[in-house]
Amino acid sequence: MPASTLQNSPNAVLNKSVADRYRNLPCKGRIKATYIWIDGTGENVRAKTRTLDFVPTEPEELPIWNYDGSSCFQAEGANSDTYLHPVALYNDPFTGGNNKLVLCDTYRYNKQPTATNKRKSCLEAMEAARDTIPWFGIEQEYTLLDMDMRPLGWPKVGFPGPQGPYYCGVGANKVYARDIVESHYSACLYAGINISGTNAEVMPSQWEYQVGPCEGIATSDQLWVSRYILHRVSEDFGVIVTFDPKPIEGDWNGAGAHTNFSTKAMRDEGGLRDIEKAIEKLAKNHRQHIEAYDPRGGKDNERRLTGSHETSSIHNFTSGVANRKASVRIPRGCAEEKKGYLEDRRPSSNCDPYSVCEALIRTCVLNG
Ligand code: ADP
Ligand code: MN
Ligand code: MN
Ligand code: MN
Ligand code: MN
């Protein structure tokens, strides 16, 4: 891509080898803890860092903290203190050592969860369904943008050649910014995220990685931190990440967050019957699921779930073995083995995984 565009990013032009001089300075027993939270958009993450004089091993050891909710679309200026409750800990791949990333959920002045704290009720559902040992694996798709908000590497006037050669592509004219993808992958492994793979997507500059399978709330927690890590790695390269589910109108694939789900009964011998029973319940609750599957109650997915570009129509529920045009797909291997998991293909790339996983558990296990 023309160097002139990346030079519009102040982050990309800062000399990273100068920063390396300071990276390994001894910090006299103190560590940096970066608290991460979801802001009032329900889509974007925020973070700020504090010093601790011990190395935490459990989130409960960390202090509750606060931030200015009025600057995050979450509170009035006159009553702005919003609380950060640490819920999960990861190693910090950006500063290394004993430094930590601290995922938090957010509470208002009156101790009630903020409007975009979807974790609390998700966790309640996961606890109610604990005996069924639910697993989730989420395929996170995303698109890289240049500083001018055009997809990275696309011509500044006109479009790249039509889709076809880019999915799982190899070569300088097929994929853009593999450096970001590989750096993010390594950083997630270092952090302790159960990232299970990555691939280039159908639209050029669109990529995917998968998190899971993990039990219960863990997949959603890890997915949010993996998104933080992706934004943060891309920041170092002067590149923007968008999770918009249809970043480019027209004959270009949108981006989803296919959510793979199973219970112990589905994974056991003959579990296909349990998978089919869950799909019958999902069919009856299509509208509620669509509402939970993007941050705008289905508005974002209207642009994506058109029935073309490997999607189902937003208006009706369909399912099928190996069918990538269905709302819910049973992978071929699971149909053959008569056990395994189902893939819900409806969640948008910018979904809140807490809302998605909660909807799946409530419909398929807790019966609403
Ligand atoms: P595809 O692109 O063919 O839809 P991927 O390989 O990208 O599939 O993703 C499959 C996902 O399914 C992975 O995230 C994996 O963690 C998840 N997964 C595998 N087995 C299970 C299971 N038993 N329950 C829930 N998720 C699972
Ligand atoms: Mn200040
Ligand atoms: Mn996939
Ligand atoms: Mn994909
Ligand atoms: Mn998939």
From TrEMBL:
Cross-referenced PROSITE patterns: GLNA_1, GLNA_ATP, GS_BETA_GRASP, GS_CATALYTIC
Source organism (scientific name): Zophobas morio
Reaction equations catalysed: L-glutamate + NH4(+) + ATP = L-glutamine + ADP + phosphate + H(+)
Coiled-coil boundaries: none
GO terms of molecular function: ATP binding; glutamine synthetase activity
Protein name stated in the entry: Glutamine synthetase
Domain GS catalytic: 118-368
Tree of life domain: Eukaryota
